[in-house]
Amino acid sequence: MSGIASIHLVENALLVSIQDDVNDTEILELQDSLSRRIAQDNVAGVIIDISALEIVDTFVGRVIAQLAGISKLLDAKTYVVGMRPAVAMTLVELGMYLPEAQTALSLSHALSQLRSD
């Protein structure tokens, strides 16, 4: 996978850090890699860090929703961390909701939530 995203095992969760704008090919790669890692590592959760994203459009919102959906189907809870206020407002303005994902203030908060489940 190029520099758009990385996947790291942190405790019993996979941390997906999206670094830059993504395109369709890179997202398909990310989805495939994430689904394999969830099954391989048998994790309880997936934490998607979007703190590096300045702008979130409908494509990125859809990507986050798809990653959360894949995680749920593979029995892993999904948390989105690092959402800036402007990003949250943009998602609401676009009518985008993430029903398969929860939000957390930070990686520590998401890990704490996963531990308590």
From TrEMBL:
UniProt superkingdom: Bacteria
InterPro entries reported for this sequence: Bact_StressResp_Reg, STAS_dom, STAS_dom_sf
CDD domains per UniProt: STAS_RsbR_RsbS_like
Domain STAS: 3-114
Listed PANTHER family: RSBT ANTAGONIST PROTEIN RSBS, RSBT ANTAGONIST PROTEIN RSBS-RELATED
Name of the protein this chain belongs to: STAS domain-containing protein
Record organism: Roseibium limicola
Organism taxonomic ancestry: Bacteria, Pseudomonadati, Pseudomonadota, Alphaproteobacteria, Hyphomicrobiales
